[in-house]
Specification:
Elements: H1 30-36, H2 43-60, E1 64-67, E2 80-84, E3 87-90, H3 107-116, H4 119-130, H5 142-174, E4 177-182, E5 185-190, E6 199-203, E7 211-217, E8 223-227, H6 229-232, E9 237-241, H7 244-249, H8 253-258, E10 262-265, E11 277-281, E12 284-288, E13 293-294, E14 299-301, E15 305-312, H9 318-321, H10 332-365, H11 381-395, H12 402-421, E16 435-436, E17 450-453, E18 460-471, E19 474-476, H13 480-483, H14 508-516, H15 520-531, E20 536-540, E21 543-547, H16 551-562, E22 565-570, E23 574-579, E24 582-592, E25 600-606, E26 612-618, H17 620-623, H18 634-646, E27 650-659, H19 661-675, H20 681-692, E28 697-708, H21 712-721, E29 725-729, H22 734-743, E30 752-755, H23 756-773, H24 780-784, E31 795-800, H25 801-807, H26 826-856, E32 859-863, H27 867-881, E33 885-889, H28 895-900, E34 903-907, H29 914-917, E35 921-923, H30 928-966, H31 979-989, H32 991-1000, H33 1006-1011, H34 1017-1020, H35 1027-1053, H36 1066-1088, H37 1094-1114, H38 1117-1122, H39 1132-1136, H40 1140-1166, H41 1171-1177, H42 1179-1188, H43 1216-1221, H44 1232-1236
Parallel strand pairs: 17-29, 17-33, 29-32, 30-31, 31-32, 33-34, 34-35
Antiparallel strand pairs: 1-10, 2-3, 4-5, 4-6, 6-15, 7-13, 7-15, 8-9, 8-14, 10-11, 11-12, 16-35, 18-19, 18-28, 20-21, 22-23, 23-24, 24-25, 25-26, 26-27, 27-28
């Protein structure tokens, strides 16, 4: 790209993004970014500058002060902030977590306030007030009060149940306990009572209740091992270490009680990986960093107990700061429904105004001259018209259906229970059922366009398994096809007393070779796995427990253990291995640790004969560069690596090298010097490591499976066929994320992969072209929207967090140094504003271009991204694509993304419950997502759309009859029906059938929904409920109202009963019209029902029977005697409904209403059948096929790929520094053989450890 770049959007060519590192933290300050820039300056200047910066930085940033064991300190006036007017409270949050909305006092007023914020509820409250005014009302007040109370009551009960669940969850967390110093002693205290400055004691396998500064622990040098699954989804252990001074003096309870240190640190923020502060104690100050802080949500592991002082509590903790803002979520149908209700409002007002004008005209022409209509009030015609306007607002109120909202809530609640009760989404292994944590988003599940998924713990099990290996050019481990054969048996490891019983291996020949001991290369291979690592070992209940810095390393050491080469223990300078039952101890001379640049690690050991040997393992790309030219098995191993890569296994090369004593002594001197280097120590060590790691002898390669959860490839395939695009957003390495993309079939060998560096120039060119073309051509807008890629090939985008910031122009600019400046002129200010506006416009256009480009790709994988970046990607797609999004994750680092998406799903697994607590839906495995969307989501969408269409139709059909009646009653706002019919129409007579359709209807079965994912497209395109469908319902309602009014009107016009009576009075007409309406509406919903059950049939015919039962009861003489003013249609129904011609009238009305609907339904199914109609027609054939078809087992589709998957070491250095320094080794420990002796059943040659 040779085009000139605008200075405002030019990327820094000298600092290309690093794919291996996470981008800057979410709250990172410009000063921190500034401090990263290397500077060449004299040493004394540097010292002076650092001292000055430190003083300035503490004045500005370290305004958070914590005094240990002194609660009164934090209540001082300078630590209080104004809450409201003159009311102040401490800026230090309490440790109690609150997610509920109500308490017993505030529930009623707050809930009513929230409900009356809804336009429909407030409208009906106003109507109720209007109905108390006798001059304008023609309806009794109870016709509005009964439905309103029902709606408010049901909604209040539902809100109460939801809030009680929140109370219980909060109570469970807040009432956890730990030991806190009180009155000089540790006392058991609830989490909610913990305050900033408290000194607490935590025990093994307990959660950390707040962000605390580690003071001491039971481990050597006050090390503390923690699991951060709640924060980042990773289950491998990490370690923290206390200050040396606190480790020395703060071990006893009395010392803890007397501790009075003052901590000055940064204000609460969301940076999980950073902390800056100082401890002032005993007239000394000690710097603090993130390695000394235990964050809330971590779990104490392998540490009997530890002590700490609380720095941040409750809402100030980093995990809570990372949870993002709680967003109010509503479905697309909700928004559309509200707009339709507003449309009905406008229509109602215009209609009432027109009818009021009609009444004014009628009064002037007829009413004033008709003496028999005089009502004793001398109102002018305009005033009577004004009163009638409000009268019609009341009469036509059913056009704005109050019961709509409560019916929708009932349907959503029922759908939520169906999700909870679905046994096919129950994960038996963890006893985890699916859970709909909200009832407001069910139909949105049927409209998803984009899924944003975490990787670790969401797509994968976060479990690594040793599958295959290549030793001396010979491959071991059965192929995936052979594993499906029933004759193949699993290797029996019972001969090995140390085997953990969890490894599944099927190549018996390798076991025979190991037992025979004939091949020294095999012995060297597994010996290397057992000795070249930084794994820590712990013994509990006679069992060895390995704690590794990465899951891969743990899997390799565990594999060596099962094959007879067992890592038993280590000291600072030795390591003890059991080799086929024989214990040997080796001197470890050096550990050359892993980092992301080296992609390898080595150990140098002295063997029992005195020989010095280097063992190394690493990625094939770096190992092959360092091999001795004379390696004989190089090609055979490379061929094995290709085969392993085709099966999407993660590969690793193993090699060794013999070192002479003289060579080691010379190298060791350089190693000692580099280890003592203060500045650029890591770079110096890497250079020394490079000198010794060359001319290596290749031993072989390992192949590890990063186990996907069951059914992930099939789920992704079905969701893709449903038109849903899947993006993976992970904090993992690029190679690891890419490897998983191939494993789960998100990427295939036919996919063209684009990386950040590829699209950066493409986007830059597009942005320049857009700026150049803007306004220069009438067709510029068309050309600016042209696709980025030529069609015909599947493309995928893999981009790191650093490139994401670079491309989206999110990189923070360095802070300018303070300079003496003259006041700016108006022209300069205007120019600055213009530059800022142009930069913002460029940024917005660049972001839109990126989203357009990414959405052209079949799949997108964003790796090494922060929680904030995950949320940003979701927000960009929501903003520029107007698409419905779903985010799914399992850790606290996914919470922000889950809250940002339209629908959030939490995986409730081994990585904690933080994501689940912030999610809308939760279940145990990723594979259940296909059932959630393709079955429950699609059904919910179809049911809700059918319900809404019919609900609007039945209300229009009911209400518009009043308008036709107005032409015959002088527009006087008299009702066409009895008051009690109006009251009960939506509540009892027509509510149940339509509710059951909204709850139970289905066009095709769940199996067919999963088999034909293309059915899902209806929801994505909003085909079943939109303004067009709304106006179709309106027209249908108008036609029905015309028929049920004018056919009885014509029948009543000149009629005589069989007995000489003439039932053509108003009350008989109202009963006939109402009865016709009940028949039409209930039969119409029957015609629209796709899935008939006994309950549906009972609801349709039961509603008709209920109508006649109540009508005959309300028209009886007995109830009129009791309540003469409320029940005035005495004897009407019995008299009218015994006339045969009235039944014939009703039959005619029903037939004319329903026959066109039946004909249209027949034509649509035969001439223009939908996809679901075709599937429903052939459902028996499909079900028979399913019975005969054996579903293939869930295995990965292995391609013929030449790609290699990099071995995923941990993202940080391992435990090498701890091991080499001896800080992790207990000073007094019984020999391991003494600990394990009781579990040994046969004699062993023991070479004891010291």
């Amino acid at each position: 790209m040779n085009s000139e770049r605008d200075s405002e959007t030019t990327f820094d060519e000298d600092s290309q993004p690093n794919d291996e590192v996470m981008p800057y933290s979410d709250d990172e300050t410009e000063d921190e970014l500034d401090s990263r820039q290397p500077a060449v300056e004299p040493e004394q200047n540097r010292i002076n500058r650092e001292a000055e910066e430190k003083r300035e930085s503490f004045k500005k940033d370290c305004s958070w002060q914590v005094k240990a064991n002194d609660r009164h300190f934090h209540e001082q006036p300078q630590f209080k902030r104004t809450v409201f007017l003159c009311f102040k409270k401490s800026k230090y949050a309490g440790n109690a977590i609150k997610t509920y909305k109500y308490n017993p006092i505030t529930f009623l007023p707050l809930n009513l306030f929230e409900q009356f914020k809804r336009a429909a509820n407030f409208y009906f409250l106003v109507l109720l007030i209007l109905q108390t005014v006798p001059q304008i009302t023609t309806l009794s007040w109870y016709t509005t009060l009964v439905p309103l109370l029902l709606v408010l009551g049901i909604t209040a009960v539902k809100d109460l149940v939801d809030d009680i669940a929140c109370h219980r969850m909060d109570s469970e967390v807040n009432n956890r306990t730990c030991d806190v110093i009180r009155d000089g002693r540790f006392k058991n205290t609830k989490w909610k009572d913990i305050k900033v400055g408290d000194v607490i004691r935590l025990k093994k396998n307990t959660f950390v209740p707040a962000d605390i500064l580690l003071l001491s622990s039971s481990e050597p040098n006050s090390l503390c091992y923690i699991e951060t699954a709640e924060l980042d989804g990773e289950t491998n252990l990490k370690f923290k270490m206390a200050l040396e001074v606190t480790d020395r003096y703060l071990q006893e309870e009395s010392a803890m009680a007397d501790f009075s240190g003052l901590i000055e640190c940064e204000e609460p923020n969301n940076r999980l990986d950073k902390f800056a502060g100082t401890l002032f104690w005993r007239n000394m100050n000690y710097p603090l960093d993130a390695d000394k802080i235990l964050l809330r949500g971590c779990k104490i592991r392998n540490t009997d107990f530890c002590h700490g002082v609380v720095i941040f509590a409750g809402a100030d903790t980093k995990i809570m700061k990372n949870s993002g803002k709680t967003r109010f979520k509503r479905t697309q149908i909700d928004s559309l429904m509200n707009y339709m209700v507003y449309t009905i409002f406008v229509f109602l007002i215009l209609l009432s105004a027109g009818l009021a004008i009609g009444h004014t005209y009628w009064e002037q022409q007829i009413g004033n001259s008709s003496w028999y209509l005089y009502d004793g009030e001398d109102y002018s015609p305009p005033y009577r018209g004004f009163l009638n306007f409000w009268g019609y607002i009341i009469v036509l109120n059913a056009m704005v259906p109050i019961s709509l909202y409560v019916s929708v809530e009932v349907i959503r609640l029922g759908q939520s229970y169906f999700i909870d009760w679905d046994l096919q989404m129950y994960y038996a292994e963890k006893d985890t059922a699916a859970k709909a944590r909200t009832t407001k988003l069910n139909e949105q599940l049927g409209q998803i366009h984009y899924i944003f998924s975490d990787k670790t713990g969401t797509l994968t099990q976060n479990v690594m398994t040793f599958k295959k290996c290549c030793i001396n050019g010979q491959r071991y481990g059965k192929s995936m096809r052979l594993l499906l054969h029933p004759i193949i048996k699993q290797v029996d490891f019972s001969w090995n007393m140390y085997a953990d019983g969890k490894l599944s291996f099927y190549d018996h020949y390798l076991i025979e070779q190991i037992k025979s001991g004939k091949d020294p290369e095999i012995r060297q291979f597994f010996f290397l796995l057992a000795i070249c690592h930084t794994v820590m070992v712990d013994v509990s209940d006679g069992q060895l427990n390995y704690q590794a810095a990465s899951p891969d390393e743990g899997a390799l050491v565990t594999a060596a253990r099962n094959f007879g080469y067992v890592f038993l223990s280590r000291t600072q300078n030795t390591i003890t291995i059991s080799e086929m039952g024989i214990e040997r101890t080796y001197d470890v001379l050096a550990i050359l640790d892993f980092n992301s640049d080296r992609k390898r690690m080595s150990v140098i050991v002295r063997e029992s004969e005195g020989n010095i040997r280097l063992y190394c393992k690493g990625a094939d790309t770096v190992i092959y560069q360092r091999l001795h030219p004379g390696n004989l098995k190089r090609e055979a191993t490379e061929e094995a690596l290709d085969i392993f890569a085709n099966e999407t296994l993660r590969t690793l090369c193993l090699c060794y090298k013999d070192i002479s004593h003289d060579e080691f002594e010379a190298w060791n001197k350089k190693f000692i010097v580099a280890s003592a280097t203060i500045t650029n120590r890591d770079e110096a060590l890497d250079k020394v490591y490079e000198e010794i790691e060359k001319n290596l002898i290749l031993l072989g390669a390992t192949a590890i499976e990063d186990k996907l959860q069951d059914g992930v490839p099939e789920t992704i395939s079905k969701l893709s066929k449903a038109g849903i695009k899947i993006w993976v957003l992970t904090g993992d390495k690029k190679e690891t994320a890419e490897n998983i993309g191939f494993s789960c079939e998100l990427l295939t060998d036919e996919t063209t992969i684009c990386y950040g560096e590829d699209i950066s120039a493409l986007l830059q060119t597009r942005l320049e072209n857009q700026r150049n073309r803007a306004g220069s051509s009438t067709h510029s807008s068309l050309r600016m929207n042209e696709p980025f890629f030529q069609s015909g090939r599947d493309r995928a985008l893999i981009i790191t967090g650093s490139w994401l910031n670079e491309i989206l122009l999110e990189k923070k600019k360095k802070k300018k140094k303070l300079k003496l400046k003259f006041p700016k002129t108006a022209e300069e200010k205007q120019k600055q504003i213009e530059n800022r506006r142009r930069a913002e416009a460029n940024k917005e256009q660049q972001q839109k271009n990126f989203v357009d480009l990414a959405c052209e790709c079949k799949a997108v994988i964003c790796c090494r991204v922060t929680p904030k970046q995950k949320a940003m990607v979701v927000e960009l797609v929501k903003k520029y694509k107007k698409a419905i999004t779903l985010a799914i994750g399992d850790g606290a680092n996914d919470v922000n993304m889950i809250k940002t998406a339209h629908v959030g799903v939490g995986i409730s697994g081994q990585e904690g419950m933080q994501a689940v607590m912030s999610s809308d839906y939760a279940f145990g495995q990723f594979r259940y997502l296909q059932r959630l969307l393709l079955v429950h989501g699609r059904w919910s969408y179809i049911r809700m759309c059918k319900f809404l269409r019919f609900f609007f139709y039945k209300n229009f059909a009911f209400t518009l009859a009043h308008i036709w009646y107005s032409f015959f009653n002088g527009f006087s706002a008299q009702t066409a029906y009895e008051d009690w019919f109006i009251t009960l129409y939506n509540v009892m007579y027509t509510s149940l059938p339509v509710l059951l359709v909204g709850l139970l209807d289905q066009d095709v079965s769940d199996r067919l929904s999963l088999r034909f994912p293309g059915l899902y497209v209806l929801g994505q395109k909003d085909l079943l409920f939109n303004y067009r469908k709304f106006f179709v319902s309106l027209i249908h309602g108008i036609v029905t109202s015309l028929i049920i009014f004018f056919i009885p009107y014509g029948a009543y016009l000149k009629t005589m009963g069989r007995d000489g009576e003439a039932p053509s009075d108003y009350q008989s007409f109202a009963v006939t019209t109402a009865s016709s309406l009940i028949f039409v509406v209930n039969f119409q919903i029957g015609l629209d029902t796709s899935y008939w059950t006994f309950i549906n049939a009972f609801s349709v015919f039961g509603s008709i029977a209920l109508y006649f039962g109540i009508t005959f009861d309300f028209h009886s003489a007995g109830i009129h005697v009791l309540f003469p003013s409320a029940f005035q249609f005495t004897g009407t129904a019995p008299n009218a409904l015994r006339q045969p011609y009235l039944w014939l009238t009703m039959i005619l009305s029903v037939a004319i209403c329903l026959l066109p609907a039946v004909a249209l339904r027949f034509l649509s199914m035969t001439v223009w059948p939908s996809e679901s109609d075709r599937i429903q027609k052939n459902r028996k054939k499909y079900m028979a096929e399913e019975e005969q078809w054996k579903r293939r087992q869930s295995t990965f589709r292995r391609g013929v790929s030449g790609r290699r998957s990099a071995y995923a070491f941990s993202h940080q250095r391992g435990y090498a520094d701890l091991i080499a320094s001896g800080r992790s080794i207990r000073k007094k420990r019984a020999p391991l053989d003494a600990v394990l002796r009781h579990s040994v059943t046969e004699g062993r040659d023991t070479h004891g450890t010291s």
